[in-house]
Design goal:
single chain, alpha/beta, OB fold (Dihydrolipoamide Acetyltransferase, E2P), 3 domains, five-stranded mixed β-barrel, five-stranded parallel β-sheet
Length: 402
């Protein structure tokens, strides 16, 4: 048996290829476009370098990647310096990158940026066009691949969170030349046939090229023209497409989109329970206030309130009455005292009082009856009438002197 007829194991052949490639190729400088760039949790950076017709797998280890001055993203044009090696576990050759330099934007990114600027200038991305999602949709239309992981994730999330929600899957290719036209047609069909209260348009993760249909102008315009609110759920959180800007809401993943359109049943039950407790508390508070108001109209309470209202007036009236009574008494007392004094003065000045003190009134008998005040009006032998306090007497003058 010759050496050519002797079979080789896969490992032996891979080792032979590895020795040939790694032993014959010096360190190289390769220029290409970054694609499918995925940083690992270990810190290593895995990506693909590509041009129009070929792709090269590349890896940059953590101790080299942390010294870069930028974060490589899909579509970026770079220059990678490193060596070619064979990754035996997968039987493929790859580049171990020692240094990575950015040389400019790749063709895809440049095209997307130009398209984004043009569509944005038309107002297709304006916030004023965005509409709020219905909180309780009864039917959700999903435009995606019927065999992809995205549709399974969406259905599983909806079944777990709200099993009563109807799901209408509108199948469409999500990558390739026909994908954009199919996605746009299904969005238009959803609107024309009213197949949902909200539309989810999306797919699972992939490279920048894989996601290109969701940045196609047909898809962007179909989303912008939709009268049904649209959620764009393309790839993973770090992925993006122009559909994200045209949609009413962007979801980082298809699963997140399903959560956005479905209220959790347990969360709804908790919210309803909270509302019920708040309503019961409010009703109890209102009833307590009503009881307090009604208590104010009980007879005893009404009487007490009336007493509080009229008591000051009644007290003022009593005080005024007492003051008037005291004033009238004092005035009567003063007048009585004055009257008594006047009576005394009058009594003291009366002729009877004068006579009672021992005086008498002398009149000329047969005269005018006026009291004699001067001795010159009589003479010896004049007849006199003398009035005393009690009784009278007649007398005759014997002698008159001044």
């Amino acid at each position: 048996m010759t050496d050519q007829d002797r079979p080789l194991s896969v490992s032996a052949l891979t080792a032979l290829v590895k020795d040939l490639i790694e032993g014959s190729l010096p360190p190289l400088l390769v220029e290409g476009e970054v694609s499918n760039c995925r940083p690992a949790s270990s810190g290593h950076l895995y990506f693909t370098l590509k041009d129009r017709s070929s792709m090269l797998q590349a890896v940059m280890f953590r101790y080299k990647a942390r010294n870069m001055g930028f974060d490589p993203v899909d579509g970026m044009l770079v220059r990678a310096r490193g060596s070619i090696t064979v990754y035996a576990a997968r039987g493929q050759y790859q580049m171990i990158v020692e240094r990575l330099e950015r040389t400019g934007e790749g063709d895809i990114l440049a095209m997307l940026e130009e398209r984004k600027r043009r569509l944005e200038a038309e107002g297709l991305f304006d916030d004023s066009r965005k509409r709020a999602l219905p909180r309780f949709p009864s039917r959700v239309a999903v435009v995606t691949s019927p065999t992809g992981a995205a549709v399974r994730d969406i259905i599983n999330v909806l079944a777990r969170r709200n099993s009563g929600l109807n799901v209408v899957v509108l199948p469409a290719a999500v990558q390739g030349e026909e994908a954009a036209a199919q996605i746009a047609r299904q969005i238009e069909a959803s609107n024309r046939l009213s197949l949902g209260d909200v539309i989810i348009v999306g797919r699972g993760g992939g490279s920048l090229e894989d996601l290109l249909p969701f940045s196609d102008e047909l898809v962007v315009r179909a989303i912008a023209a939709s009268r049904i609110p649209v959620i764009s759920a393309v790839g993973h959180e770090i992925d993006w497409a122009l559909s994200d800007y045209a949609a009413d809401l962007r979801a980082p993943t298809p699963s997140a989109a399903a959560e956005l359109v479905s209220e959790s049943r347990s969360a709804l039950e908790r919210e309803i329970g909270q509302f019920a407790a708040e309503l019961a508390t409010a009703m109890r508070s209102r009833l307590d206030r009503a009881r307090l108001l009604l208590a104010r109209f009980e007879p005893s309470a009404v009487e007490a309130r009336l007493m509080r209202i009229f008591m000051p007036a009644a007290r003022r009236l009593d005080d005024a009455r007492d003051e008037l009574s005291r004033g009238m008494g004092e005035r009567v007392e003063r007048l009585s005292r004055r009257l008594e004094l006047a009576g005394r003065d009058l009594e003291a000045a009366s002729p009877a009082a004068v006579l009672a003190r021992g005086y008498s009134v002398v009149r000329l008998e047969g005269g005018t009856g006026a009291a004699l005040r001067d001795s010159s009006s009589i003479g010896p032998g004049s007849k006199l009438e003398i009035s005393f306090a009690r009784g009278k007497a007649l007398a005759e003058t014997l002698e008159v002197s001044e």
